[in-house]
Amino acid sequence: MRQIRVRIAPSPTGIPHIGNTRTALFNYLFAKHNQGMFLLRIEDTDRARIVAESEKAIYEILSWLGLQWDEEYKQSERLDIYKEHGKILQEKGLAYEDNGAIRFKMSKEGITEWVDAIGEKHISFENKTQEDFVIIKSDSFPTYNFANVVDDHLMQISHVIRGDEFISSTPKHIQLYEAFSWKHPVFAHLPVILGPDKTKLSKRHGAKSVLDYRDEGYLKEALLNFMVLLGWNPGGDREILSIEEMISLFDLKDVNTSSPVFDVHKLMWFNGYYIRNLSEDELFLRIKDLGLTIKDEQLAKKLIPLAQTRMNTLNDFYTLTKHFFEEPEIILDEKEKEVAKKLLDVFTNVLAWKKEDILQFLKQVLEQEKTRMTMFYKILTGKESGLPLPESLVILGKEKTIERLKRII
């Protein structure tokens, strides 16, 4: 049986967004499920459109997610191979020179057809609609359509799993395979991801890079779990899946033929789930790995248990605990100042600075002043909500709490 070999072939003409990365994930899972090989091929032949830093980002995205490739290639290092294969087509009379470039002669008779692995769809194009196309440009670099086919054959790619925007290019690819008397791989075209408004996913919908989501405090486990369900159904109602479970269950026949809808709220739900299921030590390390400075590590570790259940992203830790590490800006009206004075009075008399005693005094002032807990939050933290107040004040300490009340009054 032929070994399963798939590839992800990004072009460094921009940083891949989450849709491209989902394609990489599907390729990786298919390869690993079938004990096959997952190749990375940098398609950098469009020299005019290369964007600085994008190639580095490609490696960083795959490495951070743990999608380790087995072989690696770069098309700009393979120019002699494409030149040689261009000559083969010219010698066969299937390609010709045109203003310094070389064009491939497309057959105009009959149809070009294949059965796509996604939904087992039969797809066909009338050849009379196809035009000759450039395979080697005047700068001696191959075009995408040509290098893609030559490399997929020489790298023994068994399945080409890619977005359905490549369907219209597939007749060119199949005719090139036939011109060389090569067998073409299985084609599997993934339905495009849609935004909430059912149009193609774009930046306004959240089509950012995985690295952007990482920097916003999303966990790789949540991103992998979210992406895999964008168009694939493992069966049943299961939603939480480890990468090992994804590998075990993944099959192309379970990829949906309809376009999935990108829901950033669902991604945040996954992220909150994975954050709450980390150990406190692991969560602390993930927050540190985000690269933001923790001024007092011991204080941060005390706050982790309070913050963990209220976090949807790692960055939420800083939002929820900022007032512990620096003095918050608190501006009160006259009523709020009166309540602050009352809190100062009662807190000064708290002998045992414990959660139960603090809660009792808060309830006392709440009743006397006919106010709400949101006012206490504002007085003590500068915000109208946050971590549980009695527990927070225990960690902040009596001295610091009284000092803060005196300052704002």
Helix and strand layout, with pairings?
Blueprint: E1 5-8, H1 18-33, E2 37-42, H2 54-65, E3 71-74, H3 79-91, E4 95-98, E5 101-104, E6 111-116, E7 121-126, E8 133-136, H4 144-154, E9 159-163, H5 170-179, E10 186-190, H6 210-215, H7 220-228, H8 243-249, H9 264-276, H10 280-289, H11 297-308, H12 316-325, H13 334-348, H14 355-369, H15 373-381, H16 389-396, H17 398-408
Provide a descriptive summary of the structure in words.
There is one protein chain. The chain has 409 residues and is α/β, with parallel strands linked by helices. It folds into four domains: 5-75 and 192-254, 3-Layer(aba) Sandwich (Rossmann fold); 78-190, HUPs (Rossmann fold, 3-Layer(aba) Sandwich); 282-325, no CATH class; 334-408, Orthogonal Bundle (Arc Repressor Mutant, subunit A), CATH 1.10.10. It has helices spanning 18-33, 54-65, 79-91, 144-154, 170-179, 210-215, 220-228, 243-249, 264-276, 280-289, 297-308, 316-325, 334-348, 355-369, 373-381, 389-396, 398-408; strands at 5-8, 37-42, 71-74, 95-98, 101-104, 111-116, 121-126, 133-136, 159-163, 186-190. The strands form four sheets. Strands 1-2-3 form a three-stranded parallel beta sheet. A hairpin with a 2-residue loop joins strand 4 and strand 5. Helix 4 (144-154) crosses helix 5.
